[in-house]
Amino acid sequence: MALREFFTQRIKRGLIRRLNNLKIASVARKVAHREPHPSGAPVVFFKASTGIDDLSWNSGFHLLASWALRLKGIPVAYFACHFGMSKCVLGTNRDDPQKQLPCRSCVMQSKALYAGTPSTVEGLKVQRSSVNWFEFSRDAALENAIRDLNVDQLSNFTYHDLPLGALCLPGLRWILRIHHLKDNENTRYLLREYILSAWNISQKFSDFLDRTQPRLVIVFNGQFFPEATARYIAQKRGIRVVTHEVGLQAATAFFTDGEATAYPIHIPDEFELNDVQNAKLDAYLAKRFQGDFTMAGIKFWADMKGLDESFLQKAAQFKQIVPIFTNVIFDTSQPHANTVFEDMFDWLDMVHEIIREHRDTLFVIRAHPDETRVRKASRETVEGWVSSRGVDKEPNVVFVSPRETLSSYELIQKSKFVMIYNSTIGLEASIMGAAVLCAGRARFTQYPTVFFPQTVDEVRRKTKEFLVVEKIDIPTEFKRNARRFLYYQLYRTSLPFGDFLEPSVRTTQTRLKTFSLEKLLQSDAVKVILDGVLNNGDFLLKE
Asked: 510 and which of 58, 178, 335, 501 could share a cystine (Cβ 3.0–4.6 Å)?
C-alpha cells in the first residue's frame, strides 16, 4: 500500500509539474509578446537552479519579478545554466557524490521559464531581453593546482584573487548537512568540482557582464557558490547586487541590497507601533505560540503539546530552568553567523562545562525540528552531539529531540533565562519578556533585542552571572526592538506573491496560478520591487 501511494504521488507530481511548466511557458510567451520596446541598461537575473524536480518558491519570485520588469520596458538578461557546472549544489547526491547531475530535467524547466525569450548572440551587446546560456569548460591549470589539496587547503583556496574555497564552503556544508567537513575523498572531490565550476562561472559571467553592461544584478540567496561567485564578480566591478529569499509570511519574498540570509532591515529610530499595528502583531503571535505557522512551506508544529507532568515533577527538584535552543546546520554555518564562536558545537561544548558546574539548574536542550526534515535531514546534529558527549546522562539535563512537539513557549514562561545560538525563538522570547543570552549572530541582533556578548569569555561570564544572580535586569529596549523588528519582518519586508503562486504537491514547492499580466503589474509586491530596482527603493511595503 505504501509503495502504491509513493508511485501515485510521484505520477501526480510529474503530471502537475508538466502542466505547471506548460502554463509558465504560455505566460512567458505572452510576456515576450507584450514586452514594449526596451530602454536603458538591462537587469541581470541569475538563479543557478530553476528547480530540479519542481518549481521552487524562490524560482517563482525570481521569474515574476523579471516578467514585471520586462513588461515595464526594462530589458532583462537571464544568465542561465546549460550543463554549465561539473557539480552544482542542488544536483549533488550526498550518498553518491560522483553520480551524474540531473541537468536535463533542470534545463528543460529553464527553457519553459524562458520560453519566447531569444538567446544572446555571442559577442553582441544586449539591447533587449534575452537568455545567455553558459556551459562548462574544465580549466586544466586550475585542476592541476587543486588536485592534491586537502579539505582545509581547498576551503581556503584563492585563484587569481578570487576566493573560490570560501565561496564554495556554505553550499558544500548545506548540501552535505555537515558543518565540520570530513577530509575524505568524497568531500575533497565535491569541493574540487565546486571550485572548478565556480571558476567557470566567474569567467563566463565576467564575459556576460562585458556584453550586457547591466544597471544591476539580481541573484537568489547569494550563499551557494554559483550565485555567490556572480555576486562577488559584480560587486568587484562596482555593480549593484540585489539578493532575495523567502519571506517570513507564507508565499512571500524578501529582496535586499544586502545579504538576504542575514536579513538587513533599516527601522527608523522614531518608528513605534500604534494600537492597530500592535493588535495585528499580537494576533500573529497568538497563532504562532500555538504552533500555527509555516516557514518556506513547512509546518513544524502541527500538534504542539504542553509540558507534561513528568517534566514538571523533574523540574520541581531544581532551583531554576534554563532552556537551550539550538539551530540547524545551514543557519549556523553561514559566514555571518559565527562571529563569536567557531561554530554552534563549539558553543555547546562550553555550555556543557557550565551544566556540570551548576547542578541546581535544570538545563533543557531543545533540538530544532528541522534537523530531521524529510530530504533535508542534518547529518551533524545536536542530537548526535548530545549522544557523543553523553549530555543526556547528566542529572540536570532534559534533551528534547527534533521529533518531539514540546511547546518552546511554555518552556520559556517557566525559565529564568533563555540561551540561544541564532534561532528566531530568541526574538520571540524577548517579546515574551524573557532574558535571552545569544551566542551567534542572528537576523535580529542588528538591533538591541537580546544580550549578545562579543567574545567567548564574555558569553561564559554572562552565562554564569545569570545563573547566580537573584534577578536579571532586562533593558526595556529589548522587547520594544524585538516587536519592531518582527513587525517589519512580517508586514514591511515580506512581499506577498500569493495571488500568483500557490503550494504544489509538496508545499515546499510552488505552481503558477491563473492571473492577468495587468494584475501582476498592479500588485503591491511588484510595485515595491520595481521601485527598489529602478529608484533605489528600500524594498519595503508601504503602510
From this structure: 501
- pLDDT of residue 226 exceeding 60: yes
Q: Is the pLDDT confidence value at 63 over 50?
A: yes
Question: Half-sphere exposure of 423 toward its Cβ, with a 13 Å CA cutoff?
Answer: 24
Any idea which residue has 542575514 for its cell?
262
C-alpha cell belonging to residue 443? 537576523
Beta strands in 305-438, from DSSP E residues, in sequence order:
320-325, 361-366, 397-400, 418-420, 436-438
Name, of 263-277, 288-302, 305-319, the range with top average pLDDT.
Answer: 263-277
- Give the list of residues 6+ apart from residue 200 with CB closer than 8 angstroms, or none: 84, 85, 86, 134, 136, 137, 138, 139
What separation, in Å, do the N-terminal and C-terminal C-alpha atoms of the chain show? Answer: 51
Q: Which of 342, 349, 403 is nearest to 371 (CA)?
A: 403
pLDDT band with cut points at 50, 70 and 90 for residue 406: confident
* Cβ–Cβ under 8 Å, residues 297 and 392: no
- What residue type is assigned to position 531 of the chain? D
- DSSP label at 441? -
Tens digits of residue pLDDT in 329-348: 777 777 788 999 999 999 99
Distance in angstroms (rounded) separating the CA atoms of residues 327 and 368: 5
**Per-residue model confidence (pLDDT) at position 370:** 79
Listed in sequence order, the DSSP H helices in 414-455 are 425-431
- The residue written with cell numbers 560522483 in the block is 98
Q: Are 32 and 128 a contacting pair, CB within 8 Å?
A: no
Burial degree of 384 (CB within 10 A; 0-12, 13-18, 19+)? middle
CATH hierarchy code of domain 275-491: 3.40.50.2000
Gap between the Cα atoms of 52 and 71, Å rounded: 27
Which conformational region is residue 116 in: left (phi greater than 0), alpha (psi within -120 to 50 degrees), or beta?
A: left
Taking a C-beta distance cutoff of 8 angstroms, is the pair 447, 268 a contact?
A: no
pLDDT of residue 391: 96
Q: For residues 254 and 145, what is the distance between their CA atoms, to the nearest angstrom?
A: 39
pLDDT bracket for residue 244 (50, 70, 90): very high
Q: What are phi and psi of 26, to 5 degrees?
A: -65, -45
For the chain, what are the domain ranges? Answer: 2-138+195-265+494-535, 275-491
Which of 140, 188, 62, 183 is CA-nearest to residue 501? Answer: 62
Query: Cell digits for 431?
Result: 517579546
